[in-house]
Amino acid sequence: MCDHHNKSLTRRDFLTKTSLGLGAVAMSSLMNPLSMGASTLLGPNGDPILGKPHFTPKVKRVIYLLQSGAPSQLDLFDYKPLLNKLNGQELPESVRKGQRLTGMTAGQTSFPLAGSIFNFKQHGQSGAWMSDLMPHTAGIADELCFIKSMHTDAINHDPAVTFLQTGSQFSGRPSIGSWVSYGLGSDNKNLPNFVVLVTKDKKGQPLYSRLWGNGFLPSEHQGTQFRAGKDPVLFLQNPPGVTSESRRNQLDHLEQLQQLQYDALEDPEIRARMSQYEMAFRMQTSVPEIMNTDGEPEHIYDMYGSDSRIPGTFAANCLLARRLVEKDVKFIQLYHQGWDHHGGLPAGIKKQCKETDQPTAALIKDLKQRGLLEDTLVIWGGEFGRTNYSQGALTATNYGRDHHPKCFTLFMAGAGVKKGMTYGATDDFGYNIVENPVHVHDFQATLMHLMGVDHERLIYKHQGRRFRLTDVSGHVLKDILS
């Protein structure tokens, strides 16, 4: 096979392949980006990837707890006593201002205001408002940075979560974790840069692997899903009869063949494929070690809650996220479904909070007690908000809320953001933003900034256009930075 490739290279082929290459070598000796102190290197397609961050990062690692289905901010964080006072009255047109509705409530002839049936209190020295649904998270209120003025372009779940994760409502773009992996690389060569954990056995809005996909970036930057059960990563283990030594020998010979193929075609996906093969080989040892939590002490299980003993639950995934952070995995994405409460919201949101409140608070406290919160950022939130009026019938004990992209809440904790802060505000009806609006691209730009990346400079040329996570907009929220 090797001789065949060598014989196919004629003198003309050699001169064709090297004529421009020799010129590039000469030019690089005159214009060495490293010798000039540049902060970028050229990637396989000639596009800039980071040799080092653009500036000193405040965040080394991110744990993103995405609450799929869109939690109701009005029943968790955004306290609006006026809604309780006007409960059952019509949403004034002067507040709605003809804004777009989903197909689920566009046919309603009445839009009765729905106050929350849950009690709100202020917590900590910061005085953050939170409902009694999240007592554990309320206990760490002074660690949190709330953004109550988030808004998005999408009104339905799939485009909204796609927009939040990739910067575009259309599928095919790289996810946030993939951009981070592409730009910053890895701090642990035995585990993926970008790990995905999905709560098992949850129903709700569907989650697709493209949400953590690499899009048009090289494929080694896609998120790697760790699952609960015997095989955390599919197709990772050797089949019966294949030893680790024989697998190593196979990969060594395969690399020689792939290198010949790359020399002939210069397709970057060939190198990406080999990189994935090598990572899979190393993960055969590292993944079982990281997934085995038997060595965790009892008080840690108690901190995260009883569900933390059940692999695949949100609590168990939070504990696993902490273990991955300890191993310097750069981007960890948790997905938890079930927040889509068009009806039966009181019962539904109680169940969701029971599953997520204690583990979320435990994760932040656990990171802090280990000194990891100093350079780790934790993010909690959904893809959009919920309406202040009831979808369907409103009763004294039951109501639902439709999608509302014009305002929602998320919170962050840890490195780079101010503690005990609330940024942005909505009106007394909880329908429109009246202070410091934050677009999804602003949030993404800020996240990249905290990791030392200028979102306008981390780009990838694809099909004749230069793409970035934030597309053509996005501003860093400097007021929330510590």
Write the layout of secondary structure elements.
Elements lengths: L1 H6 L3 H20 L9 E3 L5 E3 L10 E7 L13 H5 L7 H4 L23 E4 L4 E4 L3 H4 L5 E8 L5 H10 L9 H9 L9 E5 L25 E2 L18 H22 L2 H24 L6 H7 L9 H13 L4 E6 L8 H25 L6 E6 L3 E2 L16 E2 L3 E7 L6 E3 L1 E2 L6 E3 L2 E2 H11 L9 E3 L2 E3 L15
Parallel strand pairs: 3-9, 3-10, 6-14, 6-17, 7-8, 7-9
Antiparallel strand pairs: 1-2, 4-5, 6-13, 10-13, 11-12, 15-16, 18-19
Helix pairs in contact: 8-9, 11-12
Features:
482 residues; alpha/beta; Alkaline Phosphatase, subunit A; two-stranded antiparallel sheet; 19 strands
Would you give an account of this structure?
The protein is an alpha/beta fold. It has 13 helices and 19 strands. The chain has helices at residues 2-7, 11-30, 81-85, 93-96, 135-138, 157-166, 176-184, 244-265, 268-291, 298-304, 314-326, 345-369, 440-450; strands at 40-42, 48-50, 61-67, 120-123, 128-131, 144-151, 194-198, 224-225, 331-336, 376-381, 385-386, 403-404, 408-414, 421-423, 425-426, 433-435, 438-439, 460-462, 465-467. Strands 3, 6, 7, 8, 9, 10, 13, 14 and 17 form a nine-stranded mixed beta sheet that branches. Helix 8 runs antiparallel to helix 9 (268-291). It starts with a helix and ends in a 15-residue tail after the last strand. Mean pLDDT is 89; it is low at 24-48.
